[in-house]
Amino acid sequence: MPMDKPQLGRSGISVSVLGLGCNNFGVAIDIDETRDVVHAALDLGVTLFDVADVYGGRGKAEEFLGYILGPKRKDIVLATKFGLAMMDNTKNINASRNYIMRAVEDSLRRLRTEWIDLY
């Protein structure tokens, strides 16, 4: 039975009722286990993948997800976020325009994509 995919508010974006949180990719689980989890989620009809630039120890979760998704990227809704400054070793929150622009460009590169659906 296919998973329901309701529309996300008035955005026009439809997402699976279940999403996959990717916080442990790159730290608690390695690339092979990450691949297994992502492929299992896709097989179950999951279309929402939630990651952040700090997940996996400064970007590793985004790198793993981008590598594994490959051409399936076009079939999913990708959410990532920023906030904790990754450019230094502190846990400072940074929401300046310059930081956001740099953070989104870095996330796009790590995720191997040209767009992020939810930021």
Automatic annotation (TrEMBL):
It comes from the Bacteria. InterPro entries: AKR2_Oxidoreductase, NAD(P)_OxRdtase_dom_sf, NADP_OxRdtase_dom. PROSITE patterns: PROKAR_LIPOPROTEIN. Coiled coil: none annotated. Signal peptide: none annotated. This is NADP-dependent oxidoreductase domain-containing protein. Residues 18-119 form the NADP-dependent oxidoreductase domain.
